[in-house]
Write a structure and sequence with these properties.
This protein has two helices and eleven strands, in the order E-E-E-E-H-E-E-E-E-E-E-E-H. It has 185 residues and is mostly beta strands. It has a single domain, classed as Jelly Rolls (Sandwich). The strands form two sheets. Strands 1, 2, 5, 6, 7, 8, 9, 10 and 11 form a nine-stranded antiparallel β-sheet that branches. Strands 3-4 form a two-stranded antiparallel sheet. A hairpin with a 2-residue loop joins strand 3 and strand 4. The longest helix has 4 residues. It binds dTDP-4-keto-6-deoxyglucose (T46). The site of dTDP-4-keto-6-deoxyglucose has 12 residues, from strand 5, strand 6 and strand 10. InterPro entries: RmlC-like, RmlC-like_jellyroll, RmlC_Cupin_sf.
C-alpha cells in the first residue's frame, strides 16, 4: 500500500499519508489511488481538481460545503506553505454534529485530508505563500453552495491566528440558528 489512512474522529474525514521513495535522482510518491482509497471514497469518483493560492498568513477561506444533490467529498493537499485545515461536521444525527477537527498540512508532508459530504471545509494560512490542491467528487455548483461563518459560536473553531482577508461572501455566511439541527448530504 502506498497510502496510509488515519481517522480524525469525524466519520469519513481522514488523513491520507503517502509513502515517498527516494533514490539518487530524487523521490517519488503516490498522492491518489482510487483502489487504495476505495474504502473512504465509497464509490465516489474525482470529477474536478482545483487550486487556491493564498499569499498572506492569517488569511482564512471557508467554511464551505455544497448542499445535496451536489454534496461532495474533497481531498485537499498543501503544495506550498503551511495551513491549519478544518473539517466541521454538519450532518444531521451525526455523533460528532457541529464538532470540528483540524490538521496542519504543509508542502512536502505528503499528507492530505479527505472531507466527506455533509461537512464544511476551511483553512487558515500559517506560512506565507500557501497553495492548495483540491480533488472534488462533485462538480462546482454555485447555486448549491452553503457556508458556515468562521466565527460561528455554535462551531467555535479555534483559529490559531487572528483571521484576516476573508472574502465578502465568507464574512456574510449566516450564523447557525439555535434550531439548526444539521443537513442531509
Ligand atoms: C470552487 C470554484 C470557485 N470558482 C470561482 C468562484 C469565485 O469567483 C472564485 C473563488 O471561489 P471561492 O471564493 O468560492 O473559493 P474559496 O473561498 O477559495 O473556496 C475554496 O476554499 C475553500 C476552503 C473550500 O473548501 C472550497 O472548496 C474551495 O473552492 O472562483 C470557480 O470558478 N470554480 C470553482 O470550482
Amino acid at each position: 500500500m502506498n497510502l496510509k489512512i488515519e481517522q480524525t474522529g469525524i466519520d469519513g474525514a481522514v488523513v491520507v499519508s503517502s509513502t515517498r521513495r527516494g533514490d539518487e535522482r530524487g523521490s517519488f510518491a503516490r498522492w491518489f489511488c482510487e483502489d487504495e482509497l476505495a474504502a473512504v471514497l465509497g464509490g465516489s469518483r474525482i470529477v474536478q481538481a482545483n487550486n487556491s493560492v493564498t499569499p498572506e498568513p492569517g488569511t482564512l477561506r471557508g467554511m464551505h460545503f455544497q448542499h445535496a444533490p451536489h454534496a461532495e467529498k474533497k481531498l485537499i493537499r498543501c503544495i506550498a506553505g503551511r495551513v491549519f485545515d478544518v473539517v466541521l461536521d454538519l450532518r444531521a444525527g451525526s455523533p460528532t454534529f457541529l464538532q470540528w477537527r483540524a490538521v496542519e498540512l504543509a508542502a512536502g508532508d505528503d499528507r492530505a485530508i479527505l472531507i466527506p459530504e455533509g461537512c464544511a471545509h476551511g483553512f487558515q494560512v500559517l506560512e506565507a505563500g500557501a497553495s492548495l490542491l483540491y480533488l472534488h467528487t462533485a462538480a462546482y455548483a454555485p447555486h448549491a453552495e452553503g457556508g458556515v461563518r468562521y466565527d460561528d459560536p455554535r462551531a467555535a473553531i479555534a483559529w490559531p491566528l487572528p483571521p484576516r482577508n476573508l472574502s465578502a461572501r465568507d464574512l456574510q455566511h449566516p450564523l447557525l440558528g439555535a434550531d439548526f439541527n444539521g443537513i442531509t448530504p
